[in-house]
Every structure is written in structure tokens, then in C-alpha cells.
UniProtKB/TrEMBL annotation:
EC number of this enzyme: 1.1.1.157
Phylogenetic placement of the source organism: Bacteria, Bacillati, Actinomycetota, Actinomycetes, Kitasatosporales
Name the record gives this protein: 3-hydroxybutyryl-CoA dehydrogenase
Enzyme class per UniProt: oxidoreductase
Domain of life: Bacteria
Keywords noted in UniProt: Oxidoreductase
Length: 601
């Protein structure tokens, strides 16, 4: 028996019904009308339908003011949109996009009613980001015409559309919707049916871990958000993003993901339930992780949890000279940062030759800054003069702060701290730049663990604005105060955290990267589609596989092993595909091949 949809291509989807006229439905309506489609907007609430029209009138008026539309084009766009409360208005549609609340009962009722209203060849798309498209399709009279069309908020601005096929979806329906997405100026990504799909599947696990980190009182909400913005170049921190999405929505998505995966990383953090049930659902409620000026406002106002600018509890120690141990990119970058801020710097390496090579690297960096007009030649020369390169750590005898930036090897660091303990004067602060190893292990290698602290810079140190300040249970208050004061002088944003694997950034970043590898390993999506999804749908500056190849697959694997060993969560176990690539010597850009191949330099 023939089905309504065969492999024969469908005619262009000219008339589209949008069911559900909340923020997302209104945005999709605007996108469709702007692309010349006739749109039938339907919502059970007359008030919501009226709000949709008012929002369209306001947004198109702004577009005219900004020169993006003419008055005539605006009038034509608005004329293509009709709204109402009766689902029977969808009878004329070639495509129906449902963006009702995330409830199987509500969505299934809509699809059942549509079965008796629309033509047999009409495509039915759900905008869900959490529920099973297959389950919705199976309950429909014609499951072959049901698929997912997942837009991202705000729909007019966000380029990504995930086109979700179930095992029941006809290829003709997928092709028609994909072509429509392209015609709307969007970037369609083909994905299979699993909760969260690609973008939200990766994003919500990360958001959940950030919520759990905050709930554990490991770091403040402001420091968690600042760390991810400044350390990863993200447009928003995870807790602010949860407030924007809606804490209740995030909880619903995570519940669906956990039901499907049974991965503890997807089990909603208890704080999400607590906030949701208290009605503190984020911006829309005026309060979530943060407090807002009014419901719907994006303006954060102070509340009882807002950090007070009272200054540290202890005065810091004076710091005039800084010793930097190491000769790699990180060490030379840190030395450059301190010298630019006017500190006298001793750059020490295992040999005079390595130290001079590191100073020469700094000279080249300063020259590039001069070429780009960021500093004068005189300032560059005086900055370089503040750096003394040496092949012995004995020259750290008079420094006030010693910063270790050697290989990420615990035994190497312990030996170095034992040396610094002998060489540095009493009262000198000893700091490690480790990104994943325990700071307290470095501290215990000395006779003065109270003077040891973590200062995790990010590469390249001259450009990156973040420093994670890592206190151990032994670190003295005045040592912490000293490092906070030094960070301010070198114009870095300091965030406080405790001494546990990954600190803030790596503890949130690398599980996300690992989950992306698992998606490819399971043949769920391609490298290119995942990278595109996270850049276009999540606002990430780089896709996960671009970033893995830049960081280095060996470095990434080492950090993931440390996280897995510390937290003992099966979901943190490194993806076998990553281990296989490292074993094969495919380490990323530095070897010319990682997840992708690169031209030889």
C-alpha cells in the first residue's frame, strides 16, 4: 500500500503553519515570512496570538529604522502572516511546525488533530529539543511525514537548524525541509533522533555540570561564568545561559537525556529541581541563578549572593620581582605579561641556551605588538630589558613571587618546588601554573606549604584575560591576597576555586569535548556537522574538533584521564576513539593530523 510520501521530491513548501506562538514560534514566523512564505500562526491563547503580531510589528519597525527593510517590504511581510486559535486553519499548509510546550501529551494531541486536518502529503515537523521524534511520529497516522526541525533562539538571528529524522521518516520529507532551511538562510544539519540532538546534547551536559559545580559551593556563580567566558571565549557563562534558556526547560531536557542515556552527567543537578519548583526559572521569572530587574529583563541586579567589593580579608605581600621557571610558550608568555606590567622578571630554564631562546621568543612577540601598533618600539625595548634570562634557579634568590611553568608532570613539578623551597627567600610566594594536577602535591614538596598557590594562566598568556587562582587547604590568606593583587596589576581577571582536578574551565570543557568524540565514535553525526552545530547553535568560537586539534589530542586525553581518576564517574571515561588516535600518533595540528589532516608547514 502506497504511503502519502514517497521518494518523489515534494513541491516547495510555500505555506507553513506554526503551532505555538511563544518566543520561538514568533521568531520562526518572522523568519518564514521574511523569506516570502505565507504563514498561518496558531495558538490556543488569543492573547499569545496578539502578542505574536505585536512582536512582529515591533521587530519589522526596527528593521525599517535600521534600513534593513523598506516600508513596502514591511507591509508585505506582515500581510503574509495570519494568526488564530483554531488548528483547522492549518488545512492549507504544506508544512506544519509545532513549537508547543515540551510535553508528549500536548504534542501528541496536536499531531492527532492535524492528522484529520491537513493533506496527506503535508509535512509535520516538531520543534522539540528534548522529546523523541520517533515516539511522536509513531503516534501519528502517517509517521513517514513526521520529523524534527529544531531552530535555535532567537530564531531570526541563529543560523543553525537541526533536521531530525526518525527511522520512520521519508527521505522526501527530509529533503523538502532541508531545502526550506537553506532558502531561509539557515545552515541545516542532519541528525538522528536522540534527546538533545547535537547542539543541546553537548550543551546541556556542560550546563548541568556547571550547575552542580555551583551547588557544591566550589566557586561562585560569577566566577564560574567569568571563567568560561574568558577562558573559552563563550558569549555567556553557563549559569547566565541557564537563566536565559529557563531553568525548568533545562531540567526537562536533561531528564529526557538521562532517561535515554543513563549517564550520570545528564542526571539533572538537584539545584535545577529546587529552583524550578520554587518558580525561580530564570530571566522569565525575574530570578534564577541570578536576580533580574524585572521578569523578562536581562539586567542583573545585586542580591544577597552578589560578591561585595570589600577587598580580601588579609593584606597581600609586596611583589616587585617575579621569577618564571620554564622555557616553553607558556613560560615566555607569562614572563612577557609580568614585564609589560613593570615587574622585574627572572626567566630561568634548565640551561642558559633554553632561557635565551625563550627571551628571544618574547622579543619576537613584542615586535609583533609594535608592528600592530599596540605598543611603541621604546616600550617594547624597555619591557624586554626588564627580563633577565638565566640557566639556573639560583637566580630566584631575591624574587618575591616564583611562578612555575614547566611540563605537566607531577614528579617534575615536585622536584622543582623542592628546589624553589631551597632557593627562594622566606616569604616568597610560590605558584604553579598546572592545569590539572593537584596544587597541594607541589605544596607538600616544600617546607612552607602555606606559601604555595595555583595561578593557572591560559595560552597564549599575553592575550588571554583569565587566571584561575587555586587555593589549597594549606594556603595562607595573605598569599591568596597577594596573588589577587598581582592579577589586578597584570590586568588579568582572577577567579577563585579550590584544588581539585580541572579547576573550573577544564573540569567543564573537557567532558564536553569527550562527549563530542563519543558522538562521532557512535556514528551519530560527522565532525563537520558537530563543529557547525556548536559554532552556529551554541555561539562557540571553535567547534569541539577544531579545538581538540589545536589543544592537542594527547594533552586532552591526559586531562580527561585526570578528571576520570579524580571524580570516578563512568561518564568521564575518555572516549576510546580519542585513545586510539593518540596511540596512533595523531595528536592534532602539531603532528599534521588529528581528527582532521593539516598541510605540512
Amino acid at each position: 500500500m502506497a504511503t502519502p510520501l514517497s521518494d518523489t521530491p515534494l513541491s516547495p513548501l510555500r505555506t507553513v503553519a506554526v503551532v505555538g506562538l511563544g518566543t520561538m514560534g514568533t521568531g520562526i514566523t518572522e523568519v518564514l515570512a521574511a523569506a516570502g512564505r505565507d504563514v498561518i500562526g496558531i495558538d490556543v491563547s488569543e492573547t499569545q496570538a496578539a502578542r505574536c503580531v505585536a512582536a512582529l510589528e515591533a521587530s519589522t519597525a526596527r528593521a525599517v529604522e535600521r534600513g534593513r527593510l523598506t516600508g513596502q517590504q514591511r507591509a508585505e511581510l506582515l500581510a503574509r502572516v495570519t494568526t488564530g486559535t483554531d488548528l483547522s486553519a492549518a488545512a492549507a499548509a504544506d508544512l506544519v511546525i509545532e513549537v508547543a510546550p515540551e510535553s508528549y501529551e500536548i504534542k501528541q494531541q496536536i499531531f492527532r488533530e492535524l492528522d484529520g486536518i491537513v493533506r496527506p502529503e503535508t509535512v509535520l515537523a516538531t520543534g522539540t529539543n528534548a522529546l523523541s521524534v520517533t515516539r511522536l511520529a509513531a503516534d501519528s497516522a502517517h509517521p513517514e511525514r513526521v520529523l524534527g526541525m529544531h531552530f535555535f533562539n532567537p530564531a531570526p538571528a541563529m543560523k543553525l537548524v537541526e533536521v531530525v529524522s526518525s527511522v520512520l521518516t521519508a527521505p522526501a520529507a527530509v529533503t523538502a525541509v532541508t531545502n526550506l532551511a537553506l532558502d531561509l538562510g539557515k545552515e541545516p544539519v542532519a541528525v538522528g533522533d536522540r534527546p538533545g540532538f547535537v547542539a543541546d546534547g553537548l550543551l546541556f551536559g556542560y550546563l548541568n555540570q556547571a550547575a552542580a559545580m555551583y551547588e557544591a559551593n566550589y566557586a561562585s556563580r560569577e566566577d564560574i561564568d567569568a571563567a568560561m567566558r574568558l577562558g573559552c571565549g563563550l558569549p555567556m557563562g553557563p549559569l547566565a545561559l541557564l537563566d536565559l534558556i529557563g531553568v525548568d526547560t533545562a531540567r526537562t531536557v536533561l531528564e529526557a537525556m538521562y532517561t535515554a542515556s543513563r549517564d550520570r552527567l545528564h542526571a539533572p543537578a538537584p539545584i535545577l529541581k529546587q529552583l524550578s519548583e520554587a518558580g525561580l526559572t530564570g530571566r522569565k521569572a525575574g530570578r534564577g541563578f541570578y536576580t533580574y530587574e524585572a521578569p523578562g529583563s536581562g539586567t542583573v541586579v545585586e542580591d544577597a549572593l552578589t560578591p561585595r567589593e570589600d577587598g580580601p580579608s588579609a593584606a597581600g605581600r609586596p611583589v616587585r620581582s617575579v621569577g618564571v621557571a620554564g622555557s616553553g610558550t607558556m613560560a615566555s608568555g607569562i614572563a612577557e605579561v609580568f614585564a609589560k606590567a613593570g615587574f622585574e622578571v627572572v626567566l630561568a630554564a634548565r640551561s642558559e641556551e633554553k632561557a635565551q631562546a625563550a627571551k628571544a621568543r618574547i622579543g619576537k612577540s613584542l615586535s609583533r605588538s609594535v608592528d600592530k601598533g599596540r605598543m611603541t618600539a621604546e616600550a617594547a625595548a624597555s619591557t624586554l630589558d626588564l627580563i633577565r634570562a638565566t640557566g639556573t634557579y639560583d637566580d630566584f634568590a631575591d624574587v618575591d613571587l616564583a611562578v612555575e611553568a614547566v611540563a605537566e608532570d607531577l614528579e617534575v613539578k615536585r622536584q622543582l618546588f623542592a628546589t624553589l623551597d631551597k632557593v627562594c627567600k622566606p616569604g616568597a610566594v610560590l605558584a604553579t601554573t598546572t592545569s590539572s594536577l593537584p596544587v597541594v602535591a607541589c605544596a607538600r614538596a616544600t617546607s612552607r606549604p602555606q606559601d604555595v598557590i595555583g595561578m593557572h594562566f591560559f595560552n597564549p598568556a599575553p592575550a588571554m584575560k583569565l587566571v584561575e587562582v587555586v587555593r589549597t587547604v594549606l594556603t595562607a590568606d595573605d598569599v591568596h591576597a597577594t596573588v589577587r593583587e598581582v592579577c589586578a596589576k597584570i590586568r588579568k581577571h582572577a577567579v577563585d576555586c579550590g584544588d581539585r582536578a580541572g579547576f573550573i574551565v577544564n573540569a567543564l570543557l573537557f567532558p564536553y569535548l569527550n562527549n563530542a568524540v563519543k558522538m562521532v565514535q557512535e556514528h551519530y553525526a560527522t565532525l563537520d556537522d558537530i563543529d557547525a552545530a556548536m559554532k552556529l547553535g551554541g555561539g562557540y568560537p571553535m567547534g569541539p574538533f577544531e579545538l581538540l586539534d589545536v589543544v592537542g589530542l594527547d594533552v586532552s586525553l591526559a586531562i580527561e584521564k585526570v578528571l576520570h581518576r579524580e571524580f570516578r564517574d563512568p561518564g568521564l571515561a575518555p572516549a576510546p576513539l580519542l585513545e586510539h588516535l593518540v596511540a596512533a600518533g595523531c595528536l592534532g595540528r602539531k603532528t599534521g593530523r588529528g581528527f582532521r589532516e593539516y598541510a605540512k608547514r
